[in-house]
Amino acid sequence: MSPPVIVAALRWVDLSPRVDPLTGAVHTGTPTSGLTAADECALEHALRLAEAMDGDCVAVTAGPEAADTVLRRALAAGASSAWRAPLAESALDDGRRAATALAGLVRAHCGEPSYVLCGDHSADRGTGATPGFLAAMLGLPQALGVLHLDWDQGRVVAQRRLDGGRRERLALAPPAVCSVEPANVRLRRAPLPAVLAARHAELGLTGSEPSTPDRVRTVGTHAFRPRTRRVPAPVGENPNARLLALTGALVEREPPRLTYPADANAAADELLAFLRQHGYLT
Amino acid sequence: MIAVVPVRSGVLPHGAEETATEAGGRALVIGSGTATAAAELASATRIWLAEAGDYAPGRWASGIATLAAGPLAEEEGPWLLPASPDGRDLAPRLAHVLDLPLLAGAIEVTASGAELARWGSRVVTEIDATGPFVATLLPGSRTPEGDSARAAETTELDWTPGAERDAEVIEVLPPDPRTADLAEAPRILGAGAGLTRGAEPAGTEALALLEQVASALAASVGATRVVTDAGHATYERQIGTTGVVVDPELYVAFGVSGAAQHIGGLGAPTHVVSVNLDPSCPMTAMADLGIVTDATELLRELAARLGDTPAETDEETARAEEAAHG
Amino acid sequence: MAEHAGPAQHTSMATVGERGGITTFDAVVVGAGPAGSAAALELARAGHRVALVERGSFPGAKNVYGGVVYGRVLDELVPEWWEQAPVQRWVTRRQTMMMTPTQSMTVDFRTEAWGRPPYNGATAHRGEFDAWLAGKAEQAGAELLTSTVVTGLLRGVRGEIVGVRTDRPDGDLTAPVVIACDGVNSFLAKEAGMYPDGQVEHTTLGVKETLALPRETIDERFAVRGREGVDIEMVGCTRGIPGGGFLYTNLDSVSIGVVLGLTELGKAGIRPEEIIADLKRHPAIAPLVRGGEITEFSAHLIPEGGYHTMPKLTDDGILVTGDAAAMCLAAGIWLEGVNFAIGSGMYAGRAAAAALSTGDTSAAGLAGYERSLRDTFVLADHKKLARAPELLLGDRVQNRYPAMICDLLEGVFQVTNPEPKPGMRALLRRSAKKHGVRMRDLAKDAVAGLRAYG
Ligand SMILES: Cc1cc2nc3c(=O)[nH]c(=O)nc-3n(C[C@H](O)[C@H](O)[C@H](O)COP(=O)(O)OP(=O)(O)OC[C@H]3O[C@@H](n4cnc5c(N)ncnc54)[C@H](O)[C@@H]3O)c2cc1C
Ligand SMILES: Cc1cc2nc3c(=O)[nH]c(=O)nc-3n(C[C@H](O)[C@H](O)[C@H](O)COP(=O)(O)OP(=O)(O)OC[C@H]3O[C@@H](n4cnc5c(N)ncnc54)[C@H](O)[C@@H]3O)c2cc1C
Ligand SMILES: Nc1ncnc2c1ncn2[C@@H]1O[C@H](COP(=O)(O)O)[C@@H](O)[C@H]1O
Prior knowledge:
By secondary structure, chain A is of the alpha/beta class.
């Protein structure tokens, strides 16, 4: 039987793009592109799982030729092989095109992978949808947004964040897709000889570029502004009362106070007294 | 448009009201305890319930596709989910089985398209769609509307899950106040550039100290973009228009200038304290108590007083004791 | 670094090759700033196996400077560099401004010639420029190792440098020559015992903000068009702390910053941001930067001592270049470092290549480096301007002359009717007296200035 395969899906993306604060135009560059912290964590988890399961870690990416740098990083860190599918970025991609390309690579070169590890969200799209699409396409269960990931008696036990600060613990028997938040582990330092070897390693390139979606189109881009908020209609008997309710006039309020304490000690006294007075401290 | 609201044990997800409002009051409530959750959903006027049990995105997606072809066949979409953890996970699977485009991470959704926040919410891309689609709406994007007194027309649907394999849920753990979603925290201590660039400790260490003080005050830690960009705090700690929108009772700002983008996400706290060297910065101007002092030094003093004594103070005590005895 | 020394390691190095945790090159260049990339490029061109080690995630990732690269030295390293280098704007207008909090006197020079090949100076982003130059070295065959920090030197039996230790597992790199291009306060030169003491006194802090402005706004405010750009240097804007200010135009942003003496900054207890804030509010500067959105804030040290504070440049198995060798020329109206870094790196690379081909990499074998430096602008300029830093950072130039000159001009240009116009000499004397400048010192400084800059 062939050894288990753990796939790390790594996205090559600009980590510090220049965004024009006025127009929202994004300028990206190759030097500043690489792996997000989340994808680094995904790679580290994949390497650890490969060690624990006595298997191979295979790195895959979908992107332009420059994306090979993230594959070389993975090889230097211990991945046993690396594959790229050609993919030109499109602002319209919802993660489906990337997932289609990645699923193609996985089917062609990774046999039946035990686990596919992804980052929780990318730096550009940032929706975390790709891993969900990938799971759907590969017909695998998923655990997305994982904070802790442990290998425990033949399965992965994952803790993921829910809303309201709750957490969920999941058991994932292989095969499965898992996306991890940039937390709790750090990508290992690649040994120097491995870094040098990876600079000249052969990388696999296969697959054809998935078509761009035709049912949606971009009509514009602008710098982020929050949506204008609609204030709910004020309640009140008459227009005068409604106006008062809307403006908050006549509502009793302590006058603001500005203090210049002599030192940190006096400043702490001020702050703690304020907190006590308003019931935040007893 | 119809909202798809995944619920767990009768608890609505973050952003449920906004999503239902955006969808014009029509909502499919799916999960466990759907009736209880639906009763809470004030912004919905027309509700369908699918009692689907524990969260299972794979099986739910194809189950919803069955509903879409059956009892919900009249609903044309778009299908709108909150970009909460569960909504965000379910959306791509749903888009996959329905074979529809996904417009994820929207700040506004209409029947014909959406505005999507990209590049860490620094950019907005406007998308037009020629047909139905699935979308997720970022919480904090809009004001929910609705009337809790009004009863919604409710239909219970028969539920047939798909045959997909899903992960096995071992347990759900209650919130830890330190990591509780900032958006829901009643007390927040905010870290600004003034805290991380000032005297020692700086940067990540200052944040760790703030974390200590916060836990003594049962508060959560938030930060400005300058701080999260510098990597001293994680992005989920960022308060503001491009971060989390919060609405605490108490906000204590340490070295925060009070830029519009930050204040835009602050809600309307009952009490605001601003610790800043600049007495006229906007944060201090809007505060109930403005303390003009070095934020880091104050923080150190607070940490010392509020129990979790830093190691150096222990050492000092030990040294003092030694001196007294020797 | 005694623990790395020892005959065993040294003799084994040749045989071990790339296995067993030791990797061997002909030369190791530490730091992929302009100096390091130039050195690696020359070595690789000469056919040597060279490792270029950089701690940042890419060359230029964390490198900070004001914004102007002077191109002449590049002609020799990369012919027709202007066709390919990532340039923002060509500097065709240069200003020197003497200022007090409320006044300013500007010398404004512009020439069309600087806007044509071979050009004089260009504004460029360091992230782009350094990556471009390092890319040249890579194309020539240098092995660029990023995210790798050099943590120590390896020494051979006679104490000569035989390689470096990095922070990576199995991270030793051996080579007969190590070129230290690791920037200001060079860790390597210090480890090698080549640095004189007291560097702090000769170090200034440079802080800079990048402000985004629409391209058309910049064109309009600075009166330039197309790819033309402006370089403004300022004296008298640093609240009495020795130093100066600068303002450069990029394509759709401007860089504004100050350079401040470290010791005095410490004493003054002022944050450098406040001084930039002052500068941005100055009546002569405010209209130029108004509405600019801060997109970047950065700070970096500058070796400003000049010629007399340079370390030893050559030793057995090691050469020191660029900022690591304090070769930044920061004498007031000049703020040049990148060109000196490129020049010294280039000559170091050539000297190392020559030494490798003769097989003698001792200090004597590497002596060609210092010879080239003396024969060219690199040391010639530094020697010529050796006294400039002292003069320029002195109290009179910093604190008294700007105010004196501004007052003098205010006197000259102010219309005093019905009083008759005062004579120039009287005005000068009055203004000098008001600012506590004795005519004797003024004459002395004028002579010193002529000597220092002559
Ligand atoms: C499109 C866009 C979206 C943005 N979205 C967000 C967002 O979501 N959230 C966000 O926070 N920002 C956002 N920003 C950035 C925002 O404009 C401000 O730059 C940022 O909020 C400022 O953070 P700050 O207050 O920490 O830093 P600064 O503005 O640098 O303020 C630091 C403050 O600390 C004080 N200080 C300095 N030293 C000390 C000391 N030792 N002790 C006490 N006080 C001291 C200073 O007086 C100053 O008031 C956005 C910007 C843009 C362009
Ligand atoms: C605010 C400011 C404004 C300036 N303005 C100008 C200007 O307008 N024009 C101009 O020509 N010059 C200017 N200078 C000076 C100029 O930046 C420097 O002189 C020049 O960068 C020197 O180049 P270098 O290659 O010697 O060193 P650096 O550019 O400092 O490069 C050193 C490299 O070594 C790397 N490194 C350091 N230690 C290690 C290690 N242990 N292991 C691995 N790698 C390491 C660093 O990451 C860096 O990439 C300015 C400087 C400052 C601070
Ligand atoms: N083009 C791609 N190549 C490889 N992995 C990708 C690609 N796009 C997305 N991913 C993976 O999916 C995760 C989430 O990305 P996103 O859905 O874009 O937020 C990333 O962290 C990667 O692990």
